[in-house]
Design a protein that fits this description.
heterodimer; A: MetI-like fold; 10 helices; 0% strand; flat; B: alpha/beta; six-stranded mixed sheet; 10 strands; globular; disordered N terminus
Chain lengths: 277, 282
C-alpha cells in the first residue's frame, strides 16, 4: 500500500489554485471590456439605422481611421503629452500646497474651524466658474490653465488630508508619548503613516477633478492639449476627431487610474490594514 | 497605631504613591462639574500587582491617566519613587483599553517601537524583541500585520510593546475587556506569568472582580463618583502558583471574590441611584 503523498497533494492544490487565479484574471478583463463592446455595437447600430450626416455622427471605423491619421501627423501624441504635462505640473503644486494645509487643519482644531466655511465656499465655486476672471487676469496663457487645475484639485487634497490626520486615534499618540516620543517623532511615526491612506484618496480624487478642469481650461485657452484638440476639431467640423478626443480622454484617465493611482491607494490601505480583502 | 506606622514605612519604600489626590473636570456635554476623584491615597510596593475595581464612571481611568502623566490632578500628588509625576515618561508603560498598536507596523516593528524611540542600538533591539515575542508566544508571527492577527494575539502585541521598553511600572486599563472569555483567561494566565517572571510593578484597572482577584496581590475597591479608595483586599495566594484551574477550586479565591463583590455591589447600586437622581435633575 502506498501512503498518502501529502507533498504531492499540496502541490496539486496549489497548481489548481494558481490556475483558477489566472482564469479569474482573464475573466476579469473580459468582464471589464464587455460593456464597451456592447456600447460600440450600439453606436454602430444607431449609425447604420439612422444614417446621420457625417457632420453629426460618424461610424466607429471612421474614428479608428482618425486615430491612425492624427497619430501619423504627430498631433495627437504631442497634444496628449502637453495635457499630461499640464496635469503633472498642477499635481506637483497641488501636493506641495494642499498636503501641508491639510495637515495644519488636521492638527489644529481652531484654525480648521476658522478656515472650513471659506474652504467650502470656494469648493462650491468650481474652477470652471473662475475661467472668465482668470482669462481677464492672465490672458489665454499657461498660467490660466495651471491655476484652474491647482484650484480644482486642492480642495479634495486638503479635506482628505485633514480628515486623515484628524482620524488618527488619539490613543496611538498617547502610547507614543508614554514611550517617551518627542512631537516630531510622533508626527513621523504616528500621524504621517496614519493619515497616508486618506491622503492617497484625496490625491486620487483631486487628480481626477484636475483632469476634468484641465480639459475645460484647454477649451477656452487653447494653445494645444487634448481639450484644444476636441474644440478645434469641432470648429473645423471634423466630427470623428471630436469623438476621438473624447475617447482618448476616457481611456487615458482609465489608464492613469487603474495603472497608477488605484494600485498605490490599495497597496497602502491594504498594507496599513485599513481595508480587508 | 501599629497599622498606621506600617503604612508610613510602606509609603517610604513604595514605587508609586498617591497622596490626597482629588480631581474634577467640566463635562463638555452637560457643562456641569464632575467630581471624579476624592482624596485618593495609595502606596504600591516594588513588584506589587495592584488591581482596581469599581463601578463604571468611578474615575478609575482618570486615576490611571494621572499616573501615566496625561492629566494633571487638581489637588494632591502622584509620585514615582518620591518624584512628582508631571508628564508621561518611559518609567511608566501604559497598556490601553483601545488597542494602541500601529496597524501599519508588523508585529516585530510594533514591539521594537519604544526601543527605537529610546535609540537602543539595532542589535540590542533585535535581541530584546525576540525575547518578548518568545515571552508572549508570538513566535512565527514577527512579519504579520495587526489586521492579520486574532484579537487575543493583538492584545499580546500590545502587552509586549509596553513591556519592551522595560518600564519599572506598568499601567493597564481594562486591556482584556474586548476579547472573548476563553482567550481572556489565557491572556490573564500569561500576564500573571510574565509579571511574575519580570517582577514589574503593575497597576491594573478592571471591572471584572474575578479578573481583579486572579491577577492582584491586592485588590482595591473604589466607590462610585466621586471615586474614593474604599477598601483593599489582599489575595493570600502566591501569584507564582496561580492558574485558572487551581484558582477556580481554591476557597481562598472564592472568599476574596465574595469580599470584593460585596464592596463593589454596594457601590454599583449607589452609582445607579446617583445616575437616577442625575436624570431626575436634568
Amino acid at each position: 500500500m502506498e501512503s498518502l503523498d501529502l507533498g504531492r497533494l499540496t502541490e496539486n492544490m496549489l497548481a489548481q489554485h494558481r490556475r483558477s487565479e489566472r482564469n479569474e484574471k482573464i475573466f476579469g478583463i473580459f468582464r471589464a471590456l464587455g460593456p464597451f463592446v456592447g456600447l460600440i455595437a450600439l453606436w454602430w447600430g444607431v449609425h447604420a439605422i439612422f444614417d446621420p450626416s457625417p457632420t453629426k455622427l460618424v461610424a466607429p471605423d471612421k474614428v479608428v481611421d482618425a486615430f491612425f491619421e492624427s497619430v501619423g501627423e504627430g498631433v495627437l501624441p504631442a497634444y496628449i503629452l502637453q495635457s499630461l504635462q499640464r496635469l503633472g505640473f498642477g499635481v506637483i503644486i497641488g501636493v506641495v500646497v494642499g498636503i501641508p494645509v491639510g495637515w495644519l487643519l488636521g492638527l489644529d482644531k481652531e484654525i480648521a474651524k476658522a478656515a472650513e466655511p471659506t474652504l467650502r465656499f470656494f469648493n462650491a465655486v468650481s474652477g470652471i466658474a473662475w475661467l472668465p476672471l482668470l482669462v481677464t487676469w492672465f490672458g489665454f496663457t499657461e498660467r490660466t490653465i495651471s491655476s484652474i487645475i491647482i484650484y480644482t484639485m486642492i480642495f479634495p487634497v486638503v479635506f482628505n488630508t485633514m480628515v486623515g490626520v484628524r482620524t488618527v486615534p488619539p490613543v496611538l499618540r498617547d502610547a507614543a508619548r508614554s514611550m517617551g516620543a518627542s512631537w516630531p517623532r510622533i508626527i513621523k511615526d504616528v500621524y504621517v503613516p496614519g493619515s497616508f491612506p486618506s491622503v492617497m484618496t484625496g490625491l486620487r480624487l483631486g487628480i481626477g477633478f484636475g483632469w476634468r478642469a484641465l480639459i475645460a481650461g484647454e477649451f477656452v485657452v487653447g494653445g494645444g492639449g487634448l481639450g484644444f484638440f476636441i474644440f478645434d476639431a469641432r470648429t473645423a467640423g471634423v466630427i470623428e476627431r471630436v469623438m476621438l478626443g473624447m475617447i482618448v480622454l476616457g481611456v487615458l484617465w482609465l489608464m492613469i487610474d487603474r495603472l497608477i493611482l488605484r494600485p498605490v491607494e490599495e497597496y497602502t490601505a491594504t498594507k496599513w490594514g485599513m481595508v480587508r480583502q | 497605631m501599629a497599622a498606621e506606622r506600617a503604612g508610613a514605612s510602606a509609603t517610604a519604600s513604595a514605587t508609586l504613591t498617591v497622596d490626597h489626590l482629588s480631581h474634577w473636570f467640566i463635562d463638555q456635554q452637560s457643562g456641569s462639574t464632575v467630581h471624579a476623584l476624592d482624596d485618593i491615597n495609595l502606596a504600591i510596593q516594588p513588584g506589587e500587582f495592584v488591581t482596581v475595581v469599581g463601578p463604571s464612571g468611578c474615575g478609575k481611568t482618570t486615576l490611571l491617566k494621572i499616573l501615566a502623566g496625561f492629566i494633571k490632578p487638581n489637588s494632591g500628588e502622584a509620585k514615582v519613587k518620591g518624584k512628582a509625576i508631571t508628564k508621561p515618561g518611559p518609567d511608566r508603560g501604559v497598556v490601553f483599553q483601545e488597542l494602541a498598536i500601529l496597524p501599519w507596523r508588523n508585529v516585530y516593528r510594533n514591539i521594537s517601537h519604544g526601543l527605537e524611540i529610546q535609540k537602543v542600538p539595532k542589535a540590542d533591539r533585535d535581541r530584546r524583541v525576540a525575547e518578548l515575542i518568545e515571552l508572549v508566544g508570538l513566535s512565527g508571527f514577527e512579519k504579520h500585520h495587526p489586521h492579520q492577527l486574532s484579537g487575543g494575539m493583538r492584545q499580546r502585541v500590545a502587552v509586549a510593546r509596553t513591556w519592551a521598553s522595560n518600564p519599572e511600572i506598568i499601567l493597564m486599563d481594562e486591556p482584556f475587556a474586548a476579547v472573548d472569555a476563553m482567550t481572556r483567561q489565557t491572556l490573564q494566565e500569561e500576564l500573571n506569568r510574565i509579571s511574575v517572571e519580570t517582577g514589574k510593578t503593575v497597576f491594573f484597572i478592571t471591572h471584572s472582580v474575578e479578573e481583579a482577584v486572579f491577577l492582584g496581590d491586592r485588590v482595591i475597591a473604589m466607590s462610585a463618583r466621586p471615586g474614593r479608595v474604599k477598601e483593599a483586599v489582599v489575595v493570600p495566594i502566591p501569584r507564582a502558583e496561580r492558574t485558572w484551574q487551581s484558582m477556580s477550586t481554591d476557597p481562598a479565591m472564592a472568599q476574596c471574590v465574595d469580599e470584593v463583590l460585596g464592596l463593589v455591589r454596594g457601590e454599583h447600586e449607589a452609582s445607579l441611584v446617583a445616575e437616577g437622581s442625575a436624570l431626575e435633575e436634568s
